[in-house]
Amino acid sequence: MWGANFILAEIALEDMSPISFSVSRFAMGGLAMLLVMYLQYRAECANNSGHVSFIPKVKKKHWPRLLLVSVIGATLAPWLGIEGLGLTHGARASLWLALGPAVSTGFGYLLSTEKMGKWGYLGVLLAVIGTVILAWDGLRPEQGYWLGDLILIIALILTVIELHLIKPLAREYGSVSVVAIRTAIGGSLYLLIASPALVEVTWLSLGLWTWIAILAGGAIGVGVGQWVKVRALKKLGPTQVVLYGNMVPIAALLIAWLSIGENPSILEIVSAVFIIAGAIFIQVIDTEAGATPHQAKEGDLSLFASAKQDG
């Protein structure tokens, strides 16, 4: 579904400007998040005789982090991501997403929250080689993707930063609640920024696939998908959560080829092999990284032990 989302977005950008499409899809995601949050609230009310808060009261000391996470994850990252996609193509954008494990591991290594063995270092090296190949391909005159690639890299870095910063908040208030609040705050700012572009859209003239990209892409990719990603931190930790994004480029490449006849360049294929292989070495083959889930029980994942609303 995430792989198809890239291709749907590429099609929708033929009808809309990047920011107007992105904020429209984000609004659908916010509504989906509110629905998920309400369903969880009803389930908690049925299982608890005491008072259950629909929206948790955020402590004063957590507001700076929450605001930072909201701006990074719900304003800047989606905005830059869709702008970068508009300057490249869907399958290529998904390849940059596959670089996530290497970036996440780098942050974890610097913050001393994750360890890495020799195979992990090899994985990072492979990911770097794949990045250089993909960047070189974008610099070629016949491609001209360098600006879109740069914007997508920045969006990726912001996404990984958010994934690390949001963990303590998810522990304290629950994954559903914190993602919903973050989406409401960051989405409101995003809507304000995009309002001039939204006024210019001729909504009744939009095609069927554009509406599917807005409604389904928003509800699944931006809304429920973000909740799934944050909730998965409870079991996996940030790097392994990002690792599963490596299935997305494969799906996006195949769907783009089958649906809109988009053929990847040789360098894009070679880059994909290096980046995905690097991710596998980092989190699957590396024995020290393989021990991370056990170690995380006392570190990263214990942050969620007291999140009663997560069940």
Describe it.
With 311 residues, this protein is an all-alpha fold. The chain has 15 helices and no strands. Helix content is 74%, strand content 0%. It is globular and about 60 Å long. The chain has one domain. The C terminus is likely disordered.
Run of helices and strands: HHHHHHHHHHHHHHH
- Extract low-pLDDT stretches: 291-311
Mean pLDDT: 78
What oligomeric state do the depicted chains represent? single chain
Number of helices: 15
Radius of gyration: 19 Å
Share in helix = over 70%
Outline the biggest β-sheet.
Answer: none
Structural class: mainly alpha
- Separation of the first and last Cα atoms: 26 Å
How many domains make up the coordinates?
Answer: 1
Shape: globular
Strand content: under 5%
Number of strands: 0
Q: Can you give keywords for this protein?
A:
311 residues; single chain; disordered C terminus; mainly alpha
Could you give a short description of this structure?
By secondary structure, this protein is an all-alpha fold. It has helices at about 1-10, 20-45, 65-85, 90-95, 100-110, 120-140, 145-165, 165-175, 175-200, 210-230, 240-245, 245-260, 265-285, 285-290, 290-295.
Please describe the topology of this protein.
Blueprint: H1 2-12, H2 18-47, H3 63-86, H4 90-97, H5 100-110, H6 118-139, H7 146-165, H8 167-173, H9 175-199, H10 208-232, H11 238-243, H12 247-259, H13 266-285, H14 287-290, H15 292-296
